[in-house]
Amino acid sequence: MSLKSFIAEFLILFLLVNTLIVSFLCIDMPEVEVNAGSIVTIILRFGVVFSIPISLLLTGAHFLLNKVAKNVFLKVLIAIIVVAVLYLMYHVFFWYVGISGLIDDPLAK
User: Membrane-spanning residues where (predicted)?
Assistant: First the structure.
């Protein structure tokens, strides 16, 4: 895997994860009017914080899977580690979204 393909894969995953985060938050918060300003706010507030680590994790895992192409045990181990880290980041994302919502609305209980 060359540097060009690594960067290209990272950028594609970055855009995909940002799209998923924006769509999730727009569906989860129907009271928010969806326009360019709200999408930019969501991307800057949540997308960058989570898209970069997730994209780096998946791109790095793909790079490692290419390096250990013959050893099935290492492939399974890498896949298990990636799934575990993604699961933890999923819960951190929900915690971060909940905490930031409380900060925005100080009257929330």
Answer: 7-27, 39-65, 72-97
- Is there a domain that residue 49 lies in? yes
Q: Is residue 109 part of a domain?
A: no
pTM given for the model: 0.72
Is residue 22 a part of any domain in this protein?
yes
Task: Give the chain's domain count.
Answer: 1
d(CA 13, CA 37): 23
DSSP 76-96: HHHHHHHHHHHHHHHHHHHHH
Tell me how crowded residue 107 is: count the other CB atoms within 10 A of its CB. Answer: 5
Q: Return the residue matching tokens 């909940």.
A: 98
